[in-house]
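Re: that backbone. C-alpha cells:
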C-alpha cells in the first residue's frame, strides 16, 4: 500500500510533491509489484461526497497512472457509498477490495459484519479486508470474525490492524489460525505504536509452521536497517506515543487520528487538553450514531470534540462536516443520531435518506472548467494530463490550487529534513508574540487580534485607515461587534459583506482548521 489515504493530502499540503507523479515513479521502480491504495468510497481522498462522474474519472486516472489494488472503504460502513467506486475499479480491470471498518459499540455485533460482507459481495468485489484502524480487535474476536466469514463466504480475506493498544500481534496470529488469507505488517524499524506489527516478528513466529511465509529474515533486516536511518530524519515529526495506549480501548481513536490530534492541539496551543479531548470523543461519537472512527469521520468527530473542549460548551460551534453527518449527507449511521442536534442543524428540513450521491448532479465538467479558469487567471501551467490537476483541486479546494501555483517552488512548502538525526526542537523562551495585525483575504482586510501563544482571539473587518500608519488597535466597539474565532486557522471564504445586515446564526465566514471547515456565525443580529 503506497498511495491514497492521507499520502495525497501530505504531498500537496506539506511536501510540494505531485502525488500523481509519485505514483508513476513508484510503478516505474516496481513494474511487477501490485501497488495498493486506500480509497474512501464516494469521498475518494477528500472530505465530502463526489458525484459518480468524478469517482469514475478518478479511478480511471489512478489505474492509468499505475494503481493495481483499491482498498475501498466507507467511514459509515454504508455499502451504498462504496458501490460506485468498487464498480469503477472492476470496470477498469483493477482489483476491488471491499472493506469492513471495524468498530465496537452497542450497535455492532458479529451479524453486523456478516451482513456487510454479504452486501459487498453482492455489489461485486475481488476480496474483503477487515480494517481495524484503532487496534481494538481482540484476538478472540478476530478468530471468531475470520472463522465465520471464511465459513459462510468464498472470498479472499485480509486483516489490517494497528498496534496502538498492544493487541494487534495477537489478533493477527489468531486470524491466521482461523484462516485469514493476508495480513498487513510494517518493517520493524517503522512498526508499532501508531503503525502496524513488525514484519520480521511475524515471519519468525510462523517459521516452520504450515503458515511459513518463506521470507528471508536476513534480507528483511537489510530493509529495516535502511529505514532505521530514514526514520532519524523525521524524529521531530513523531507523535508522543512510545509504547501502547490503553486509552484507545475507550476512545477508539485510530493511530493516524491520534497523531493528528496531537499535532493540531499543538497548533491551537492546547496540547494539555489531549486527555479532555480523548474523553469527549466517545460522547461525540455516540451523539453521531456510534459511527466508526476512520477518515473522514475520525477527523470530523475529533474536530468536534476539540471544539467542544476549547469553547467550554458542547456544540456551541458545530463544524460543517458534523452537521453533514447529522443531516444524513454521509449516509446511514449505525443507530439514529442525537435528535436534538439533528433538529438544530436541519432547521425544519428533512434528513437525507437515499444514497447521498444520488442527490449530486454530474460535476466533473464544471470542476474542470473552474480549475482551467483559475489556472488561466493566475498564470498556472497545468500538467500534461490536465485532468490530474483538476482532480487534485477538486479533492482539496483549500490547498490544491496553492500547490499548483507553487509546484516548482520548494520554498513554499516544508523544508526537507536534514540527513543527520534531528534534534528535538528547543522550547522557545517566550511564547509567540501577541499583537494586532491586518490580514488581507480575497482583497478584503481584516483586523486579527492574536493573544499570547498565537491564538486568534478576535477577528473584525478592518476600518479603512486615514493614513498609511500601521494599525495599532482593533476597530472600536462602536464600529461593530467583535467575532471570536473558536480555533486558530485560515480564513477560507468570506460570506458576509461589509455593511450587510445579518440575523443571529447567519454564516459570516468559513474557517479552515484541522482539515475541516468551521462556519463562523453571527452571535447576534445587526
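Recovered sequence:
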Amino acid at each position: 500500500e503506497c498511495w491514497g489515504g492521507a499520502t495525497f493530502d501530505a504531498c500537496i499540503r506539506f511536501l510540494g510533491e505531485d502525488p500523481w507523479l509519485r505514483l508513476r515513479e513508484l510503478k516505474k521502480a516496481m513494474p511487477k509489484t501490485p501497488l495498493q491504495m486506500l480509497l474512501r468510497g464516494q469521498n475518494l481522498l477528500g472530505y465530502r461526497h463526489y458525484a459518480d462522474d468524478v469517482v469514475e474519472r478518478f479511478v480511471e486516472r489512478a489505474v492509468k497512472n499505475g494503481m493495481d489494488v483499491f482498498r475501498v472503504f466507507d467511514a459509515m460502513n454504508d455499502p451504498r457509498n462504496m458501490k460506485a467506486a468498487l464498480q469503477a475499479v472492476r470496470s477498469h480491470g483493477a482489483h476491488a477490495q471491499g472493506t469492513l471498518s471495524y468498530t465496537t459499540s452497542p450497535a455492532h455485533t458479529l451479524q453486523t459484519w456478516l451482513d456487510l460482507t454479504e452486501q459487498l459481495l453482492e455489489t461485486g468485489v475481488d476480496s474483503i479486508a477487515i480494517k481495524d484502524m484503532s487496534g481494538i480487535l481482540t484476538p478472540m474476536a478476530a478468530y471468531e470474525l475470520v472463522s465465520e466469514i471464511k465459513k459462510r463466504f468464498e472470498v479472499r480475506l485480509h486483516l489490517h490492524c494497528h498496534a496502538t493498544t498492544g493487541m494487534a500481534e495477537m489478533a493477527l496470529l489468531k486470524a491466521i489460525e482461523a484462516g485469514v488469507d493476508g495480513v498487513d505488517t510494517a518493517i520493524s524499524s517503522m512498526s508499532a505504536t501508531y503503525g502496524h506489527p513488525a514484519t520480521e516478528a511475524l515471519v519468525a513466529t510462523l517459521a516452520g509452521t504450515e503458515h511459513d511465509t518463506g521470507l528471508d529474515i536476513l534480507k528483511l533486516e537489510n530493509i529495516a536497517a535502511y529505514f532505521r536511518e530514514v526514520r532519524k530524519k523525521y524524529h521531530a515529526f513523531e507523535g508522543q506515543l512510545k509504547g501502547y495506549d490503553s486509552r484507545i480501548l475507550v476512545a477508539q481513536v485510530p493511530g493516524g487520528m491520534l497523531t493528528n490530534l496531537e499535532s493540531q492541539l499543538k497548533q491551537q496551543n492546547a496540547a494539555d487538553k489531549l486527555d479532555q479531548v480523548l474523553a469527549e470523543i466517545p460522547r461525540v461519537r455516540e451523539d453521531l450514531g456510534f459511527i466508526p472512527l476512520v477518515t473522514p469521520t475520525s477527523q470530523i468527530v475529533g474536530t468536534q470534540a476539540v471544539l467542544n473542549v476549547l469553547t467550554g460548551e458542547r456544540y456551541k460551534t458545530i463544524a460543517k462536516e458534523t452537521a453533514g453527518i447529522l443531516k444524513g449527507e454521509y449516509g446511514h449511521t449505525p443507530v439514529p443520531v442525537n435528535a436534538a442536534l439533528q433538529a438544530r442543524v436541519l432547521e425544519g428540513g428533512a434528513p437525507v435518506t437515499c444514497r447521498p450521491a444520488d442527490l449530486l448532479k454530474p460535476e466533473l465538467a464544471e470542476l474542470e472548467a473552474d480549475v482551467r479558469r483559475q489556472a488561466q487567471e493566475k498564470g498556472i501551467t497545468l500538467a500534461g494530463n490536465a485532468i490530474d490537476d483538476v482532480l487534485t483541486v477538486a479533492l482539496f479546494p483549500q490547498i490544491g490550487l496553492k500547490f499548483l501555483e507553487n509546484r516548482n517552488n520548494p520554498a513554499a512548502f516544508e523544508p526537507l529534513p536534514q540527513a543527520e538525526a534531528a534534534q528535538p526542537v528547543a522550547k522557545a523562551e517566550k511564547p509567540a508574540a501577541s499583537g494586532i495585525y491586518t490580514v488581507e483575504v480575497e482583497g478584503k482586510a481584516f483586523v486579527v487580534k492574536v493573544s499570547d501563544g498565537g491564538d486568534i482571539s478576535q477577528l473584525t473587518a478592518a476600518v479603512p485607515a486615514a493614513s498609511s500608519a500601521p494599525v495599532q488597535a482593533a476597530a472600536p466597539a462602536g464600529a461593530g461587534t467583535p467575532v471570536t474565532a473558536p480555533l486558530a486557522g485560515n480564513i477560507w471564504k468570506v460570506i458576509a459583506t461589509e455593511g450587510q445586515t445579518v440575523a443571529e446564526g447567519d454564516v459570516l465566514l468559513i474557517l479552515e482548521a484541522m482539515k475541516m471547515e468551521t462556519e463562523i456565525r453571527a452571535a447576534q443580529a445587526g
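DSSP finds 18 helices and 13 strands in the chain. The chain has three domains: 3-237, 248-358, 435-521.
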